[in-house]
Structures are given as structure tokens and as C-alpha cells.
Amino acid sequence: MINLISDTVTKPTPGMLQAMLQAEVGDDVFGQDPTVNALEAKAAKMFGKEAALFCPSGTMTNQIAIKVHTQPLDEVICDEYSHIYQYEVGGYAFNSGIGVNLIKGTNGKITAEQVASAIKPVYDWLPISKLVVLENTCNKGGGSFYTLDEIRPIQQVCQERGLGLHLDGARVFNALVETGESTQAVGEVFDSISICLSKGLGAPVGSLLIGSQAFIRQARRVRKAMGGGMRQAGFLAAAGIYALDHQVLRLKEDNDRAKLLGETLSRQAYVDNVRPVQSNIVIFDLKAPWTAESYLAHLAERGINASAFGPQTVRFVTHLDVTASMIDQVLEEVTKV
């Protein structure tokens, strides 16, 4: 099967597996796993921050960040498509006792003007606006991404109004291989950053939360309270180091293949529209009588798996286990529908 369901389905490469087998490990809860320590130091340096924290998932890194940045009765401002709102089970309320202030952006992206307008005045009967979260790239927005020129005005609003700014950067490297911007420059505009290792970068498990020493010191305590303290996690951290060393630049291939899929789908009579394809995610709407269910069943019979994003909406995601020849096969099949 050609698996376009998500870039989370990637398998470790032979080189990554070898790195995992050779990892030196210890007990990370005691801070004594040298490979975890090396991964955290590497990630912090990449983004020009003081420290980082290795966690099992991006949901955990986002939820820890929200918890450290806020107090109960605060609120987080984000786009309505944001992962922290759509796909983290209301964790902002469950874990942190805060509200969410949703902005209707464009394909998952919001502006400084929208953020400024969303910040609430301080009254007893309103939550306190405390944190802004940007998702780069935005999954539900079709892999849309911010440039630094779009982020800096939002950062300025946050600084002027005393709000924290967190990056849900689960696929941030897919954005950076398009913009050519540096990780150091990204680190300069955010108070905290979450990056995922187990999507396009191909590691089997893990995300990193990056920030100041004081921020990460508190984040470690929250990670433990959430059950995220791992022991000999160096075997997993070794995969993350390998991913950051060897599998960042190749993300451009995934983006280019997704764009080719998007261009081809946009020419098909049964496709109503295709969201702008900027990275490795393709989201498109079908014309009746096709539904997402019937279309996906049709593709599955031809050896292609994808996911439904609505009653008549389908998502394709390219990744390192989808080769050029597989893309050719998908292109052939979608033109036969």
C-alpha cells in the first residue's frame, strides 16, 4: 500500500536504526541519559535557546508549554484550525484550567491585527489573555506556513501587551526548507517552541520543547506530572539526533511531490477545489456524488491509503516512505477516477 494517511507513519531508516542500537543510555528522569542530554542540547542550540526537553509527543510538548505559560482562568489565543484546539482533546482546559480565544484566520494563519483585537480587557468576569500559539505549518490549513516577516508583528504585539508566544512547530522544518529561514531566527521570535521528530523527520517517537533554562526547568516538573518521564529514552533520542542530522533537507522532496499532487488534482473534473499546497499536505474537496468515504474506498482498492478531513474532503500527506515512483502511481490513479 502507498500510505498517504500521514507523515506520522514513517519507519526508521537503516541508518537511524543503527544509531538507535548504538546509543549510550542512562536514566533520563535523573538527567543521566547522555543521548537524551545530547539531543536536548542540540535542539536548544539549533534554535538559539538555552534548553530543551524530550517528550513522547507533540501534544505533550504543547500542553506542557501552555501549562507553564498560563495560570487557571487565563486564556490562549489561536486560530480556529490550531492543533491545540482541534486535536488535543481540550487539553488546555483539562490540564491548565484555561479558556481558548479562537480567531478565524486564513488557512490557519492569523495576523498581528487580529491578535491585538482578540486580547481581552482586564475585568473580573473575563479570562486573562496570556498566550498566543501559532502553528507552523498548519495541518488543518493544508500545510500553510508563516514567514518570519509575518510572525514579527505578532511577536511585537505580544511583547507590548505582555503575552507569551509559543510555536507549535510540529512541521516547522517543512516550512523552513521552503522559506530558507534559519532555526536561529525562528528562536528569536518565540518564547517557546515545540518540534516533532516523528513526522517527516522519520523518528519513531518524540518531540522537543525548547525555551529558556527557567522555562524548561518548570517544564520538566510538568512532564513528570503528566507521566512523561522516561527512563532509558536514549534509544529514542538517538533516532531524533539522526533525524536532525540527516533528514531535514530532504523534506523539500516531500513538499515538491505534494505540490505535484495538488496541481494534478486541481485539473480533475471531480475535484471541487484544492487548498493552496505550500508544504507536504494536500487537502481537497470532492464534487458530488463523490464523498470522502467512497473516494477513499476507491483508492484503497488500488493500493492507496489516505484520510478523510470532512464529508467530502480528503487529505494526502507525503513523507520519506513515499517514493517518486509511488507518486507516479498515485498521479496515474487519480486521473482515472
> What order do the strands of the largest sheet run in, or round the barrel if closed?
2-8-7-6-5-3-4
Give the fraction of residues assigned to helices.
40-55%
**Strand segment tally:** 13
Largest sheet: 7 strands, mixed
**What is the 3D form?**
globular
Are there runs of 5+ residues with pLDDT below 50, and where? Answer: none
Continuous helix count: 14
Distance between the termini: 18 Å
The sequence of SSEs as H and E is EHHEHEHHEHEHEHHEEHHHEEHEEEH
Strand content: 15-25%
Radius of gyration, in Å, reads: 20 Å
Average predicted local confidence, pLDDT: 98
| Structural class by SSE content | alpha/beta
Task: For this entry, give a set of tags.
13 strands, alpha/beta, 337 residues, 42% helix, seven-stranded mixed sheet, four-stranded antiparallel sheet
Describe the structure.
With 337 residues, the chain is of the alpha/beta class. The chain is built from 14 helices and 13 strands. It has helices spanning 14-21, 34-46, 58-69, 83-86, 91-96, 112-118, 148-161, 172-179, 183-189, 213-225, 234-246, 251-266, 292-300, 324-334, and strands spanning 2-3, 51-55, 74-79, 99-103, 128-135, 164-169, 192-196, 207-211, 271-274, 281-286, 304-305, 307-310, 313-317. The strands form 3 sheets. The protein has a 7-stranded mixed beta sheet, with helices on both faces. A hairpin with a 2-residue loop joins strand 12 (307-310) and strand 13. Helix 8 (172-179) crosses helix 12 (251-266). The longest helix has 16 residues, at 251-266. It starts with a strand and ends with a helix.
